[in-house]
Specification:
Layout (H helix, E strand, L loop, with lengths): L15 H13 L3 E5 L2 H13 L4 E6 L4 H10 L1 E6 L15 H10 L3 E7 L10 H10 L4 E4 L26 E4 L1 H4 L7 E5 L3 H5 L2 H12 L6 H38 L13 E5 L7 H10 L6 E2 L3 E5 L6 H12 L25 H5 L3 E5 L30 H9 L4 E5 L1
Parallel strand pairs: 2-3, 2-4, 4-5, 5-6
Antiparallel strand pairs: 1-7, 6-7, 8-10, 9-10, 11-12
The structure holds pyridoxal-5'-phosphate.
């Protein structure tokens, strides 16, 4: 397939693609929804372009996908970083505090937008509603990397504080539909909220142009068709299928709790099973290896956690296999409290991401890195929070932290 009168053209849609996008917008209660066959990455790029067409400062949660930092470099956007609160459990990055957003926006009135990732990889959700209220009171839009939460509206009512970020007031959301809905790889939605700020800044009128700035002129029609089909599936049975999935998962949570393998604390996506393996004396990677032996491939594992993404398309047999695999892990120590990572203070940033990312770099041993400027992010997991970002000056505290997590080299500017 290619762009023909009957098949429409993604960036000048006025036929079947537009109709399919309008159907999806009704599902999300969005002012407008746009299809992407270039993943969530294309949606993130377009969100930044819409909110900061002339570049400038953005207040951003430090737990952020590298595609966003790269997009900041392309668009000459300068981040003002916020560390999360580490309130979600041992070794998890945690949530962005509305109070800290308020403080930063008051102290730096030239910040043009707030950007955060929610849910995070572990399914932990920040308080988007409260953050939107704070940001909107300052006349600033809220952009949410909702890569892992396209389906969250289908879990409405399952847990307080968990819903699609658009329903909680976000102005723009980037949703990686292919991660949690039956969509081919690369299929994603850019959603524009029905909010006063989105209307003020004419996001709906400008959105296709913003997508076209970064997207391929040959988007994959199979991927787009799968987005249309998934929207249809969501409309027909998505909510009951996801709510049933959560019920089907209850024995898995009970088992993790009984074995003292803690789940994240506070509001989270309950269709995702993330559990901490440290109380059982295993790293997440070691536990993942044991799950693999039992025929279960986790989505992700790090030094302390295992993440399994379940979908309504998983069969009973899949869930039983996962149940059995977890039952074979050693029991955790009920008294295990772990240690909260004490992150080094945010380093000074003499250069912007653009100035750093577009320069030549070299790899040096950590002991030679103090005082040099980082070319890439360095992010020990857990806690999954970068301690240095491109353009920041590497401090002694940063190198000490990285040493303690087993790092020995880092990429710096030449
Ligand atoms: C939080 C987050 N944002 C953005 C992306 C990029 O999404 P995509 O691969 O759909 O471009 C990812 C991919 O894993 C992600 O985890």
């Amino acid at each position: 397939m290619t762009e023909l009168p009957d098949t429409d053209s993604l960036f000048e849609a006025d036929g079947p693609i537009l109709q399919a996008e309008e159907q999806a917008a009704r599902l999300f209660h969005a002012q407008r929804t746009l299809f992407s066959a270039g993943g969530c990455t294309l949606c993130l790029q377009a969100m930044l372009r819409l909110a900061l067409p002339q570049g400038g400062k953005i207040l951003a949660g430090r737990v952020i996908h590298r595609s966003t930092v790269n997009a900041m470099a392309l668009l000459d956007i300068v981040p003002v970083w916020l560390y999360p609160e580490q309130d979600a459990g041992i070794g998890l990055p945690g949530r962005i505090s509305p109070h800290k957003v308020e403080k930063a926006l008051t102290e730096q009135p030239d910040i043009k937008a707030v950007y955060l990732t929610s849910p995070d990889y572990f399914g932990v959700c920040s308080d988007i509603g409260a953050i939107c209220r704070v940001a909107h009171a300052h006349g600033v839009p809220v952009l949410v990397d909702n890569a892992h939460g396209t389906h969250l509206g289908l879990l409405q009512g399952v847990m307080d504080g968990v819903d699609h970020p658009l329903a909680l007031g976000a102005d723009l959301t980037a949703c990686s539909a292919h991660k949690t809905l039956p969509v081919l790889t690369g299929g994603a939605f850019l959603n524009i909220g029905d909010t006063p700020l989105a209307k003020r800044d004419r996001y709906s009128e400008r959105a296709k142009e913003a997508m076209a700035l970064f997207g391929s002129t040959s988007p994959n029609y199979m991927t787009m068709a799968s987005l249309e089909q998934a929207a249809d599936w969501v409309q027909r049975e998505g909510k009951s299928a996801f709510q049933k999935l959560v019920k089907r998962m209850e024995p898995l949570w009970d088992q993790c709790n009984q074995k003292h393998l803690p789940l994240p604390l506070g509001p989270r996506d309950k269709s995702r099973l993330s559990f901490c393996t440290l109380p059982a004396g295993l790293t997440g990677e070691q536990a993942a290896q044991r799950l693999r032996h039992e025929g279960v491939e986790p989505e992700y594992a790090d030094g302390g956690w295992v993440v399994c993404i379940l979908t309504p398309q998983n069969t009973e047999e899949d869930l039983e296999k996962l149940y059995r695999a977890i039952s074979l892990l050693p029991d955790g120590d009920p008294g295990f409290t772990g240690q909260k990572a004490v992150l080094p203070p945010l380093p000074p940033a003499p250069l912007s991401p653009r100035q750093a990312i577009l320069q030549e770099s070299e790899r040096v041993p950590l002991e030679k890195a103090v005082g040099r400027i980082a070319a890439v992010a360095a992010c020990p997991c857990p806690p999954g929070v970068p301690v240095v970002m491109p353009g920041e000056r590497i401090t002694k505290k940063v190198t000490e932290f990285l040493y303690s997590y087993g790092f020995s080299f880092i990429e710096v500017l030449q």
